[in-house]
Specification:
Spore Coat Polysaccharide Biosynthesis Protein SpsA, Chain A; alpha/beta; nine-stranded mixed β-sheet
Length: about 270
């Protein structure tokens, strides 16, 4: 769906500078310059729109969703990318190449088994090495100024999860936080009657390499998949602090033709 947060400018361009919020403490920061982007899925809800290319290559406002993400992260200081490809991988490779045209370096890893967001992130282990990294789902659009906030990971935190309001948490992840906006629980697609939250998982993260320890311990979820959100919850429950950051401005999960049509309406 398409959401608006706070009083920032509409559109995918820059928002005006945000004030320091209580969930953005003034501490020493680690600057992140690596990103992992998940772009392996077809997006079956897009029906005929993804017959020839994966969902992240669908155009919104004149360019593929994936290009919005790469350029937003690049402008925030990220220069090295690994894109996880799968369905019609050649469409992504042919468009981005080695990244020079977009003034970045891009590597590719192919996902051959669709077994969940946890296992697919593990494919980037060699690229990440000992460095912190940003992770983005390949079908999420946000106001670009947010990327500058996500590449700065407070030294007080082991990871950052972005959140938004006003979404149906039964279609994604319900994020539970304390008064300091620190993650205390994360539930994937909660069913009616289960605990809920106003905070929706926005699909953009910052991690230190410790996340791979928790990915390695994942068990299949009730859906039969290895869920990244389970690893993040386990990380938080281990005693390490995970920051929840509310995004400013526009946010959209380009999940189906209706959302796409709204995004591509003339401004």
């Amino acid at each position: 769906m398409i959401g608006e947060q706070n009083s920032c400018d509409a559109g995918l361009g820059e928002t005006r500078p945000s004030i320091l919020l209580r969930n953005e403490p003034r501490t020493d920061m680690t600057k992140i310059d690596k990103a992992v982007v998940l772009a392996a899925g077809r997006g079956t809800r897009m029906r005929e729109l993804t017959v020839d290319f994966p969902k992240p290559m669908i155009e919104v406002r004149g360019k593929p969703v994936l290009q919005h993400i790469v350029e937003g992260l690049r402008d925030a200081g990220v220069r090295r990318f690994v894109i996880i490809v799968g369905y019609h991988a050649e469409a992504v490779r042919n468009f981005f190449g080695d990244g020079k045209r977009h003034r970045v370096e891009i590597e590719y890893v192919t996902q051959t088994v669709q077994d969940g967001t946890g296992r697919v992130v593990n494919l980037a282990r060699g690229f990440v090495g000992d460095s912190p990294f940003v992770l983005s789902y390949g079908d999420i659009l946000i106001s670009s100024a947010n990327y500058k906030r996500v590449v700065d990971l407070s030294d007080d935190f082991e990871a950052m999860i972005t959140v938004t309001r006003g979404e149906d948490v039964s279609k994604g992840g319900a994020v539970f936080v304390n008064k300091q906006m620190e993650l205390i629980d994360l539930r994937e697609k909660p069913k009616p009657g289960e605990p809920t939250s106003p905070w929706y998982n926005a699909g953009l993260y910052s991690f230190r390499p410790s996340i791979f320890e928790f990915i390695a311990g994942l068990k299949p979820s009730p859906r039969g998949e290895y869920e990244l959100t389970d690893a993040i919850r386990d990380l938080a429950h281990s005693g390490k602090k995970v920051q929840a950051l509310e995004l400013n401005g526009e946010w959209a999960d380009v999940r189906d033709p209706d959302v796409l049509a709204k995004l591509n309406q003339p401004l």
